[in-house]
Every structure is written in structure tokens, then in C-alpha cells.
Amino acid sequence: MDDSQLDNTMCAVRHNQRLRGIFYGDSPFFFDTPVFLAQLSIAALVTAIMQHFFTPLGQSAFISQVLAGIILGPSFLGGEPEFRDRFFPISSFYTVDTFAYFGVMLFLFIIGVKTDLSLIRKCGKKALAIGISAFSVPLLLNFAIGQIITHSVPLEPSIHRSIQWITSFQALSSSHVIICLLADLKLMNSELGRLAISSSMMSGICSWLWAVMVLTGKQSLHIRKVKTFLLMLLFLGAMVFCALFIFRPTMLWIIRRTNNPRSLKESNVCMIFVFILGSALFGEMMGQHFLFGPIILGVVVPDGPPLGTAILNRLELFVSSIMLPIYFVVTGARIDFSAISMRNFVVIEFLAVCSLIWKVAGVMVPSLYCKMPINDALYLGLILSNQGIIEVLILGRAQTTELIDKQTYSIMVVSILMFTGILAPIVKFSYKPFKRYTTQERMTIQHIKPTSELRILACIHYQEHTPSLINLFEASYPNPSGPICFYVVHLIELAGRSASLLVDHHPRNGIPDPSRTNESEHIINALRFFEHEHRGSATVYPFTSISPHESMHDDVCSLAAEKKVSLVIVLFHRHPVIHIPEGESNAIRAVNTNISLKSPCTVGILVDNGAMTSTGSMLSQRDVCRVGVIFLGGADDREALAFGCRMAKHPNIGLTLIRFLDLDLDGTFSMEMRLDLDIINAFRDDCTKNSHCEYQEVSVKDSVGVIGAIRSIESAFDLILVGRWHDKDSRLLVGLEDWNEFPELGSIGGLFVSLESDSKVSVLVMQQMNEAQDSFVAFETTRWNSFGRVWPLH
């Protein structure tokens, strides 16, 4: 598909006969339908292959799509006559071009559906200043550079005539491109990512308004009628009015009759498609591009479930994987490297480099003024400097309206490809958002005073998780002398919207929270009832996090660091009363693993095998709730025992510490063993004061003995606490890791899930924070050695 051939073609032979099949001697490449299907298949396949190789390198899907289009274009495979005539003949251009833009129309509608306009209202002064500066600074400074070049450098007439438009289009940005980039980089939930999303919304609005004014003005100047320009703006306002006051009320009416995304009626889907096609037709009739109407309709569709999610479930995969790649083939057909002049390439690339510098500077200056660290300001500037498919679409429209020529279009698309391909990996491999979670403070249960407020953050994925957590909350024994503050985050997968959200549901100054989501309503009510029952002892702060599974841990870890919690509780991805698809279960397991790796405090994974799923209070239904602590030694076991000691203060809890001893111990004591003995001695002293506490020792010599002992005691408890990590060289654990199906539970915790048993005992696997662990042990070693303490053998 070479544009030069298309320009010189007045007519082409079309083969409309029906293909009888290869057995009758008909070649499928002489008929329109098989050729069209082959084009779709090749475009999708090449794009998928490119994405497979480029995604691990930190490249976005846009890079793979553009490269696939260039490979199939006239500069590479499309330049071979045999390949071009067989797969992309001239006669197929109109069909594939129409289908490609139909796919782009649906793609822009999807972008609009994902757009959350409330972010504009919520963004603060910092995001507003950064967004406006990110657009205006490169626009003005690059325009000035362009004027200097036109008066000092000899240029070709086409470039000389359009250089002011080149500089303005290089300053454009799009919130959708930035959000997709942040999703690819897994930075949507980071503090920098949220600021980038809010700032890109502002710069994107400025860019969109500028592009509409320029393109509409160019059409009016072409026919030299100011009246036409005013009429076009008037009808543009009429389209927006219809979208707000006709289409949106219709969508709200559909939402009121839709309980969940799966219950959306087919008639409603057909109605939405009719609106999309009608808006595209209206846009063409009034002189705007037919792509303009669908994106306006998409923006006014309420994002998220049930309607936004249902629309995306039906459209997004097919549009992005099948329809969109063929558009980039059409785009790649317009890029011909052989027609690019080196002088023009140098001039336009120089302006592109200047635009990048001005944009980074335009972002960094207000960021630094707002006291942002210089590294974060630089990364924010690099993120907001990326461009993508929206800018390519605007450049295509600019070429159609003759603001720029074909050569300029080719150079600018290649420029976007190069800069995005360079900037995205730089951010991906050098920016480490989890570093902000690190702290030198010991955020653990073991190292806070017994009378201090304990802060616990719990994560819920489903409503059915609520009873398990509330029973664990009650077992933690909130009381006036030992109050507990519970932060509960309902984690919801991002669907039907583009930007992630973290919603605080705690009422302010007695005013009820208006931002409750339907998904969190029942959870919040149950937590409020628990808080009321333990008034003065427990405080509950509910949150809702809506984000992709890949970055869901960011909200949890950042909230844990901000609130200085000592324990983060997550629920095991398997639950006795919840049955979910395997893919979703694996995603939740990955979230739990990421939290365990990056949390600034202790993490507990709760495996509820049925003992804690009752809707009523577990402690009120029995005289004594039996809690056991399995102790082999190590920081995680000490943390589990510290939490168990807090539970032991509850009058309805009986705590048993079961210590496994190695029969073949050689008698030498490491620093870890001394720390273990210290906390065990403290617990044994408490046993003399609390009749519900018990201490047991079990002597074993290998992992077989450990398994047998656990089998014998598991049915004696309702809840067992155990540490995740132990001494990897211990003879008691040899071989257990080799067949452990769930490494996140550790060697001992995994036994309770892997062993075939009818016991309903629940397990809480504790992992103490990893940061500064070595330095802390070294400090404890120095402290105890300085006192010269002698450790008795018990």
C-alpha cells in the first residue's frame, strides 16, 4: 500500500465474485474477502509477536503497534512487489482503511468510557499548575525556536510553511497515553503515578482544545468564511449538549436497571452502538472528523461498573487486538523512509528534542516549587513527555487538512516512536517507587509497647472475607488499656475506568461519607457495627482501592507506611466459601506476594479453613477459643508469639506455645537462638500469671517428626500462628520446601494447606519486616554481649 501508487490510481479492478475454493483452482488472493481476512490476521500476528519481545524491555503496546505497521508498510515488507500485490493490493486499500478507522472510532469511544472526569475536579493546585505548564511552556518556547529557524535556516517551502504547526503539535499530550504508560510501568498506584494522571488530565484538555481550534480554524480559512467557523463551533457545542443532556441520562437510566456487568441487555448495547454511529455521522456532517463524536459520548458514559465495565468487556479485547493493529498498518503505509530528506529530518528532530527539554522543564519547575524531590520531578517530566496514538491521530488529521505534508508526518511519527521508546524504559528500570516504603523504624508487633495503640491494616477482596477478618480483629483483643486502630482496604480490580482510585470512607466531622461504592457498602456496615460494639477500644477506617492487580500492592504498602501500622493482614487466595476462577485466584495470590515482598511492616497471611467464617463472633460461640503458636525459632516466629501474647489477654482465649526442639542440637548458641530464648522466657513468666496460657516442648529429629507432630496437634486448635521464614539449614525442615505448593506460607504454614486433613483450623502465617533486619540483629548482638548475659537452656 504505497501512497504514491494510491495517488496515481484512478480506478482499480475489484474482484467481487465468490471464492469457490482452492480445489476449483481459485486463488484466495484474487478475492476481496480472503485478502481482507489475511490482512487482519497478519497485522494482529505481527503486533502480538512484537509485543511479546518488546514488553520485557519496558516498551508500551504503542511501540509494538507502530513497529508492526512500519514492518508491513512500504519501507519494509510492503515495498516488496510480491508481498504487496498478494496481501496488500491497491484494490483492498479502501476496505481496510474504512475498517481501520471504524476500529479507531470504537477505540476512542472506549478511551472516553475509561476517562474519569471527576479527576479534574479532585486534582489540586499542584496538578493544575504542572498540567498547564507541561502544555504551555513547550508550546511557547518551541514556537519561538521555530520562528528563529525560519529566519536563519534555509528550508524547503513545505517545511517553511508548516513549521509553526510542527512546533505546536510537538507540544501536545494525552491523558490516555500517560495512563496506559503508567499501567505498563505498574506505576498507577504510586504517588508519582497519581500526580501524573491528574496533571495529564489538565495538559490533555489543553492539548485537545488547541487541536480542535487549530484543525477547525484551518478548515474555515481554507474556504475563507469566518461565519462557517462560528457555525462549526456552534454545532460542536450542540453535540456536547446532546451528549450531556440526552445520551448521559439514557446511560444513567440503563444503569438503574442493570445490577451487574453481565446483566446488561443486548438491546441496550445496540442502543449504545446506534448513538456512537449517529455521533460519528453528525461530526462528519458538521465538518469535524467522524472520530470526534464517539469520544465525547464515551466521556459522558459513567465509568466503572456496571455499564462502563460491561461495555469494555464486550469491546476492548477485540478492538485493541484485532481492529487497532490494522490501523497502524494503514499508518505505516504513509511512512516512507526513502522519501525523507536529511535536512528536514534534522530540523524536525531538533525541534522535537527542544520540545522534550521544554516539557521536562515545564514539569520540573512547578514541581520543585511545590517542594517535590528533584528525582521525582525529573521522572514526572519524563513520564508526561511521552506521546502515543492520540497524537498520531491528530497528526493524521493535520496531514488531511494540509497543515503538514506527508514527509513531515512521517518524520513526526518516527520522532514519537523514538522518544517514547527511549523514555519509557528509562523510567521503568530506574524509578523504584517501593523505596518510599522503607523505614528505619521497627514497625512490628514485637517492638511496640503493650499499652500502646496497635495499628493493623487488613485487605479484603470479597464480602465473604469480612467475617474472617472481624473474628481475627476480635481475637486481637482491643480494650481500653490496649486500643487497636484497624485500617481496612477493600481491593477491587480496575475495570471500566482508566485511572486507579483510593477512596477514604471515614466520615469527616460526623458527616456521612457520600463516596461509598456499592461493592464496599456491606463491608463498611459490618465494620461500623464492630466499631460500635468495641467503642473506646477499637477504631475502624475503611478504604476502597480500585486498581490493577499488578500494582494493587502499592496502595496497601503506601497506606501502611503513611499510617505507621505494625501488621498488614491479607487473606489466602483460597477460601472455603468463595469459588473464583483460577486466573483471578492467581492474581490475588500475586498481590499477596507483592505485599509480602514490599511491605514496610509485618505481614500476616490468614488461611481460613472454616473456623473463622461464621458470621457471628467466634469468641462468643464457645467458652474458650484455642490458639496455638508453633515455634521453631527466628524473627518471624518471635513476631507470631508477640501477636499471640496480645491475644492471650482476651478472657476467652487459651494460648498454647508449642516449641519444637532438635534432639541433635550441638549446644552452641547463635544470636538468633538467644533472642528466641529471651521471648520464650518472658512468655513462661506470663504463664504463671495467666491460667489460659500453656507452654509445651516437642522434641523431634527430622522433618518427618515435624509433620507427625503437626498432624497430632492441628485438630486441637481453632487458630494457629506460625512464622514464615526459619533457619534454612535446620535439620527439622530438610525436604519440606521441595514439595511445598505455597512458598508464601513458608515450610510450616504450607503443611496446614498441603496435608490432607478434615481439620478446620485456621492459620496465620507471620512475616516480620525485612528492612534493616541484619543491622537490627547486629545491634541486639552488641547489646546482649555488652551485658555479658548467660542464657540458660530450657
Automatic annotation (TrEMBL):
Cellular compartment(s): Membrane
Domain of life: Eukaryota
GO cellular component, one term: endomembrane system
Record keyword Transcription regulation present: no
The protein's name: Cation/H(+) antiporter 15
TM annotation in the entry: 36-54, 61-79, 99-120, 127-150, 162-183, 195-216, 228-247, 268-291, 311-333, 345-365, 377-396, 408-427
Cation/H(+) antiporter central domain segment(s): 485-611
UniProt GO molecular function: antiporter activity
GO biological process: potassium ion transport; proton transmembrane transport; regulation of pH
Lineage, highest ranks first: Eukaryota, Viridiplantae, Streptophyta, Embryophyta, Tracheophyta
Family as reported in the entry's similarity comment: Belongs to the monovalent cation:proton antiporter 2 (CPA2) transporter (TC 2.A.37) family. CHX (TC 2.A.37.4) subfamily.
Span of domain Cation/H+ exchanger transmembrane: 44-427
Keyword RNA-binding recorded: no
Principal cellular location given in the protein's record: membrane
Entries under Pfam families matching the protein: CHX17_2nd, CHX17_C, Na_H_Exchanger
UniProt keyword list: Ion transport, Membrane, Potassium, Potassium transport, Transmembrane, Transmembrane helix, Transport
Gene3D superfamilies named in the record: 1.20.1530.20
PANTHER family, A to Z: CATION/H + ANTIPORTER (PTHR32468), CATION_H+ EXCHANGER DOMAIN-CONTAINING PROTEIN (PTHR32468:SF66)
InterPro entries documented for this protein: Cation/H_exchanger_TM, CHX17_2nd, CHX17_C, CPA2_transporter, Na+/solute_symporter_sf
Membrane topology term: Multi-pass membrane protein
Residue ranges annotated for the Cation/H(+) antiporter C-terminal domain, each copy included: 627-769
